[in-house]
Amino acid sequence: MAPPPAPPQKSPSPSQPSGKSEVSDLKLQLRQLAGSRAPGADDSKRDLFKRVISYMTVGIDVSAAFSEMVMCSATSDIVLKKMCYLYVGNYARCHPDLALLTINFLQKDCHDEDPMIRGLALRSLCSLRVPNLVEYLVAPLGAGLKDGSSYVRMVAAVGVLKLYHISAATCFDSDFPAVLKSLMLTDPDAQVVANCLFVLQEIWNLEANKSEEASRERETLLSKKLVYYLLNRIKEFNEWAQCLVLELVAKYIPSDSDDIFDIMNLLEDRLQHANGAVVLATIKVFLHLTMSMTDVHQQVYERIKAPLLTLVGSGSSEQSYAVLSHLHLLVMRAPMLFSSDYKHFYCQFSDPSYVKKLKLEMLTAIANESNTYEIVTELCEYAGNVDVPIARESIRAVGKIALQQYDVNAIVDRLLQFLEMEKDYVTAETLVLVKDLLRKYPQWSHDCIAVVGNISSKNVQEPKAKAALIWMLGEYSQDMPDAPYILESLIENWDEENAAEVRLHLLTAAMKCFFKRPPETQKALGAALAAGLADSHQDVHDRALFYYRLLQYDVSVAERVVNPPKQAVSVFADTQSSEIKDRIFDEFNSLSVVYQKPSYMFTDKEHREPFEFSEEIGNLSLGQESVGNARRYDESDKDLLLSTSEREENGGPNTNGPAAAGYSAPPDYNSSLVSLSSQTQSETAISDPGMPKHTSQMTLAIDDLLGLSVPAALAPPSLKLNPKAVLDPGTFQRKWGQLAVSISQDCSISPQGVAALTTPQALIRHMQASSIQCIASGGQSPNFKFFFFAQKLDGPPSFFLMECIINTSSAKAQVKIKADDATASEAFFALFQSALSKFGVL
Amino acid sequence: MLQCLFFLSDSGEVMLEKQMTGHRVDRSICAWFWDYVLSQGGDPSKILPVVASPTHYLFQLFRDGIIFLACTQVEMPPLMGIEFLRRVADVLTDYLGGLNEDLIKDNFIIVYELLDEMMDNGFPLTTEPNILREMITPPNIVSKMLSVVTGKNSNVSTRLPDATASCIPWRKTNMKHASNEIYVNLVEEIDAVFSRDGALVKCEIYGEVQVDSHLPGLPDLTLSFSNPSILNDMRFHPCVRFRPWESDQILSFVPPDGEFKLMSYRVKKLKSTPIYVKPHLTSDTGNCHINVLVGVRNDPGKTIDSITVQFQLPFCVASANLTSNHGTVNILADKTWSWSIGQIPKDKSPSLSGNLVLEKGLQIHRLDIKNAPSQPYKGFRALTQAGEYEVRS
């Protein structure tokens, strides 16, 4: 993620000094005061320093006064010292040569008799962050770590981390990590211990990829001995240090169930801590420890319920927001957990919208047989809310609950009452929902159609609602006496209709109506087709043309294509895969929960926590594509049901991405077929919107549609691979970073293959037989991750790199291929697929 | 790990910047954030607490016209960021005697000093006000007087807090006091929602036991309640020992010096509330008559005061003319009306349109102090206040 171009700096407002003259004036005054020992000199210095710092604070560059400030720094006044430290810390980096001037007085202060001054001086010294002054840091830091005052030791511990960031080599040469380690295990002051832990974690996390020793050191941070040592002292730590320790414990792998119960007993009272961050961190420990013990895990859910509800209700709305995001995650895994506590999620008038929105999601998620009536009653209250976006959300929530099949009868009545409220946005939202409901519960059509028929189409303006209304007019035209005439009047106003989505639906509805009531609709259909053919929107034009030709070809075939008998939709596709949800759950108590995305989708590579899923390959996998991924999920999140045209608009980048590039049919013909194929899909069964559609599948679908016979198996690929291909990991990593993804696709694995995939090695050996080598692998059942590579046998050296993520529970493999020669990657993928299909069979 | 803190005014101006780590965060992030606020309608109080900018993840907290903005690029527990900002706001409010732009600008040196002690290299250190106050003296009138008299005006104490050396981190080892007293304040908040026909939809009570302690030496206190069974989910100050509470529902603790929150709790379900609000709406073409009645449901035995009724009229209301037979009616922004009633008079029920203060809930049974050299003064006060009292119409 590239930083945005820096916006132009705001020009200083009139009240601020315009710059140079002020600064030179300050410099002059400071110079005069520098050597003065007159009484009151400190007071005047203080005023001047204050002015300098206030300029610095508002963002004016006062670095020009650097040497004067340093000259004035010889003082015994601690406030002056602090201001000076602040100033020096801010500007030392851009004046490394002048920073040398400060070393002297900072080093002197490091020997002051007052521990506070020693600590502050050491902190400032380490915060200069000037690489060529590193040599001056080592001695004071070493002394600081042995200082008699815990305050100084605490500052020195963090100072080691600062030194590490300036010069890791110096840090290791001085053996500071070892000193920290012994301090961590022996220091009587808990804050010193916590700071040592914090620093060691940071250092070893960053070093772990570079050396064996460092990754061993990182392991020791998770050793039983250390974890118990910290747990036994946990009450001595302050709240923030407790969070740190708890984060560490959450990563600890207990040896047996006694271990687990010991830890939980030690931590039980942390659930009653006043700081919400401590409570949430404790909950994470409990959930992670008991992951493998189903019964206990359930008890943990019961135990953490009350503290979580308290966190939601008391405290700030910011806290409620963060905690509600976590509850949402929990409720996905344990739907019954909060089913009797639904009242805690009722919205308060004064809740900010972001909290209300999450509460609505919670209410939707916890609705079941026992509480649906109350929850829906409550949600209906919000439909008349003054806050329109929330009113809309709550209507949608009612619809989602209805789609979950609880007490549909009562809900349909409520929805129909919404239509009688005669508020435009309520009507609009409700129409969309009624459409979804009818697709799932066709048996309710009579009740719904009676009410929908009374809605004047003039009162419906929002494209989505209008499209829904038109869809119902077409689908149920036999039950609505006025349907042909309403459609006719809508078609008459074709030119005023801005949304292509609505025009597309008008075409289809006119067709459907025509098949049911030909004499009444013929004229309207003719007008619609004529208008559609003249339409400037490509999809509308194509659909009209397609319908026209279809009708010309054979009316009964046209009816079968446009208006086939439909099955009720049983389950609407979930917007996020369960794998992703599990992944987010692993990252409980982190920002990923708030964003509802695993962290690999949004954090930068260099900042990611290396403690995650298969470290050694984790580092290879991140690049631009993860951003694309995240966006894809976002888009598919937008609506419960994606209508055709919408998918084409929103999902444009997906369908037109790598797939369109390799596709070479005539453009207009092509796109109408594509739109049809996805239309039939969305009308009969909702395909997984998260799944990208790609060349081979698309071709298959279209071939199928045209009645072409599809060969049962793919033809053997012509590509030949070098059976002895060699690639070192460094080159792999570099190539992986440089090349663009040429293919990104899902494929399925045979049941035999799933059964054979008990360890990554099984697949690695199998692939070797097909000249596909593995360079890194990781994970455990059900999730595996592989990095493969292969080399073309003849011609110039050309490599294929591949990332393959396999989930055995869904029998799916997600494949990303990058290649030196992107044109050949299609053939390589085919080869890989055929090899994969044989896995476990032989 | 927070990389940087910014304070912004409610017009988006950067008032203060504190870099925490070697990765400097450019000020341009504030400009991005402010554009984001404007794109969301310009009201900082309605912005999500966690926002993703193209380069950083931002935590933001809006308090008293000041936006506290923290930036990070790494994964971290969200509540840690949010809670820390809240502590910063609380500590500053405590130190400066309030929070606004001018106070921050006038005292920015103190703010820097405090931030320096509260966080080092992006990791929170101490946020306990009692300990901070020993390191950095608050800018109060007494210290100003002292500086005039003695000619010294350092606001930094010359000694480090003893607590850093004590085994009880929240208390000095050797405390001497002229006064010898402790005050306990019980504050409970009722949040309730009623349906339009007056039925109770939801009622929650949150309580806090606040203590202001000025006791010498190392006093060991126990506090017991006469009806602890109504408590639901408690959270305690670190000074409270967990075992005595587990076994006997007794709070046993060595208090920090000064004001602190001993415990907070939730009260189990309540069936009725002390006051009622009955809105009545009748309408005919284009005209709507509103009538709101407020009264005491069952006399709690104590006076209820500072009752305020607030309600928002929908945007379709063009004008409104509301009067009351008691108290004053004011119009706030966004068609929000506020009706201050004060105390409910005995002879009539106020009619028209609740923050209210009333008394109910947990009662203190007794407080024993052991280990104290002389008999101290014990002060108790119990107070229930309505948080959100919401009636639908």
TrEMBL record, chain A:
Keywords: Membrane, Protein transport, Transport
Residue ranges of the region described as Disordered: 1-24, 645-694
Pfam families cross-referenced by the UniProt entry: Adaptin_N (PF01602), B2-adapt-app_C (PF09066)
Superkingdom as given in the UniProt entry: Eukaryota
GO biological process: intracellular protein transport; vesicle-mediated transport
Residues annotated as domain Beta-adaptin appendage C-terminal subdomain: 719-837
Quaternary context: Adaptor protein complexes are heterotetramers composed of two large adaptins (beta-type subunit and alpha-type or delta-type or epsilon-type or gamma-type subunit), a medium adaptin (mu-type subunit) and a small adaptin (sigma-type subunit).
Annotated protein name in UniProt: Beta-adaptin-like protein
Naturally occurring in which organism (per UniProt): Ensete ventricosum
Highest classification ranks of the organism: Eukaryota, Viridiplantae, Streptophyta, Embryophyta, Tracheophyta
Automatic annotation (TrEMBL), chain B:
A cellular component term, taken from the record's GO annotations: clathrin adaptor complex
InterPro entries cross-referenced by the UniProt entry: Adaptor_comp_med_subunit, AP2_Mu_C_sf, Clathrin_mu, Longin-like_dom_sf, MHD
Keywords: Membrane, Protein transport, Transport
Biological process, per Gene Ontology: intracellular protein transport; vesicle-mediated transport
Domain MHD: 179-393
Main location: membrane
Subcellular location: Endomembrane system
A Pfam cross-reference name: Adap_comp_sub
Coiled-coil residue windows: none
Entry similarity comment: Belongs to the adaptor complexes medium subunit family.
Protein name: MHD domain-containing protein
